[in-house]
């Protein structure tokens, strides 16, 4: 296709014929009379009457261009409206008209708040006349939308409507603002359209919500010389809107009001005329045999290769195609025409005319025109339907309640319709997902070098940079990949990776399948893969390279070059500095190596972390076969940078193992897969840790919201049915509430359908489960390397714990984890990892140790996972209990205590409840919360605890003394806090107790109760520790226990004491503080001591 010319009848194709006589014979074009009738039918004059001259000069393809130009030139003139100052194309002023941090879209019409309360205005203002613009509400949070003058000065606290000459509407708080504020309008929701109207002739400002007028908001606004009003908005963090100043057709135009940006009226008239001509072509057929024109059924219209029709359409598209590159015309003309075809209902396949029209566009439009037209069409459809409610209604969707209620016939039909809609949506999305996987497969192809680098290695380097940017800027949302994209990218990448992995296995049967995939441990310490400055299990990488350098030599034959080591440590101010004398005394070979290895210019860049600099410059050498180093043996070293790596550095060749350099003796010499696929797998695990897990958890809230709105709607409908007929006012308010709940529920239901299909489907669950198994196998292989396990990045343990939590909490009840293959074995292997590594000395990070402890505490809280702990080898169970019984000092004793309590809960005195009995009186509605687990004690682990305490004479007193010390501290802190609370409550002046203080007070009480339960557990399982006085520590332990129990009883049981008064205050946050939990724990201890008096010495 060529560009259009003005002088020829047709610039795209040469349709001109040699002679009139040859036309029917050569081309199949109809005779002159029939062609004249046809063209006049397609291109009628404006008044519909053909002049006599038209018949004297027949209309042919030779003069059609002139005729068409004359038709399109009629009534072509722009209308000019006064009262406006500024550019003709109105956008947001992102150069000077804003305050705070805002993210503005590329089209300068969408904005997202990125600070406390940012403000921005448009580039055009108005000073007389009636004007309107629209705002699409993308989020329903705190925003103030309206008008302001150039003199308005905003800050992070004051925005539009907070200054004298600015006026705003706030649908979040349902108020209007002009320095002061009053109630106004209705509450808005995501997807609503707010119309902002200003009448500078009358001096009024009004607003509409979805086309419904909210009434005049302000009158007598300031007017006169120098007063002009800009569209403006102020919005809080993460809130977003999209403006329409007139670049697109207004959704709800108001008669008499003009949009700030003029519509393209000339082009619009042309587009509608051309569309009319196109419709005439579709409706008109040519009967060549009869020599006449016939009406055709548009639903079955096809091009069928008719030259006359094709050339006619080409003339139409010669003018129509350039117009379809403009968003206003696409939305007003093309989209409305396509939607009118679908008005009769049915799927797109039932309307072949749409397919025919798309084929015409592809045939008769330039490539860039097709691209721009389809882009604008899709964006217009997205704007129109993004927030539209799903057609099937929803009764109750979300987490299943424990009581299964029978559905009515209507509810069953609605639910089935919703499920069918979800399945149709899933099929459509699967098509897009398959295309995305195919694209990734092309990017992962390593056989398309073509004289250059294969696609896989280009992708691998870009992928690593992508991970580095997202890992280094986790607090800077402006440069991060959106988490929604990360979730989709993760699943598609897993599919593409597993395809190539299994393809390699098919060619190399000795390799592992993707079901057995793991990341070998040598990737974590051989320096071939950059982990940036992410934390390792053993601490900083530079520290590990120093302290474990001998282990690296013995187990992996990896030597760190002293010259490079010193060069790096001199950059790190917090590392131990090496003196100049020690440098001078280095071996000659080391000096030779150090001089040969020049430091890259980017080594001291502040953007690179310490670990990254060390890893990138560490000289690594592999000796094969394994043998001791000679005193003056030279070592070959190579600095690896992501940009400088080659295929050989990754895959290896001729004895060089590439990424697998430094295989430890514990690793079998069995091929796993291609080395590049191992690094991609490692990146997938890192990507899940960066943002995918957080996004999975965030989406669960939608299901909870659906459940809440469904219950609210059902409750409102019941109230409507019970409302007395005489209370018309109450009935109308209930109907309004019913409408709000119904609209919100439909919106959330539609969103939930997308989430269940794209995020929580069975296929996505299997991907997360596969990732969990990969992490478990990787941790198991790394654990076998002994001290080198410390090099493993912390995120592998985090992903193992988080992916299990996601499978257990996020995908149920739609999909159960128990349906996954090897579910029981996977639970047991993960339990073994938690049991072993929560007290692993190789792991030094406080955060990861706390996470392991919390994960183990959650594991023993549920019956199925507790059984998994009981299935691990006995030696590991005993070691776990020994670590739990270690003295509480110098470690997170509270979490350890919770684990022991959960192993005991259900066995103690009055300790078989799910919900605290005294709370059932004050909060009966919380009695059946699904998050409250029934007690599930473990007698097997209790037996291990009893055996350890009885057999180890030193463990029992040290453990119990630490428990008693912590109990004394926790209860003393609790008493001190309730004294302060009581004093604050008795003051005459009005005061409030800090909620954080109440929370700490309740926590201290809960800790005291749990410590008492651990003492009860110990006395029940091993009473001889206290009652067998042949033991040297028994008498002392019993005395301490008696003193503490006496202190507790004195404080709690005295009549009208401090404890009583605070409990009777019923303060929010102190619901768990009551007589029952602490007294039954003390009673359990005393009863058990009396029962076991036979052991007294």
From TrEMBL:
GO biological process: proteolysis involved in protein catabolic process
Domain of life assignment: Eukaryota
EC class: transferase
Compositional bias (Basic and acidic residues): 644-654
Region annotated Disordered, chain positions: 644-663
GO function terms (MF aspect): ubiquitin protein ligase activity; zinc ion binding
Gene Ontology cellular-component terms listed: cytoplasm
Membrane-spanning ranges: none
A Pfam family the protein falls into: SPRY
Catalytic activities: S-ubiquitinyl-[E2 ubiquitin-conjugating enzyme]-L-cysteine + [acceptor protein]-L-lysine = [E2 ubiquitin-conjugating enzyme]-L-cysteine + N(6)-ubiquitinyl-[acceptor protein]-L-lysine
UniProt cross-references to InterPro entries, sorted A to Z: B30.2/SPRY, B30.2/SPRY_sf, ConA-like_dom_sf, RNF123/RKP/RSPRY1, SPRY_dom, SPRY_RNF123, TPR_RNF123/RKP
SMART domains referenced in this protein's UniProt entry, alphabetically: SPRY
Protein's UniProt keywords contain Transferase: yes
Residue intervals of the B30.2/SPRY domain: 68-250
EC code: 2.3.2.27
Keywords: Metal-binding, Transferase, Ubl conjugation pathway, Zinc, Zinc-finger
UniProt-recorded name of the protein: RING-type E3 ubiquitin transferase
Native source organism of the sequence: Pelusios castaneus
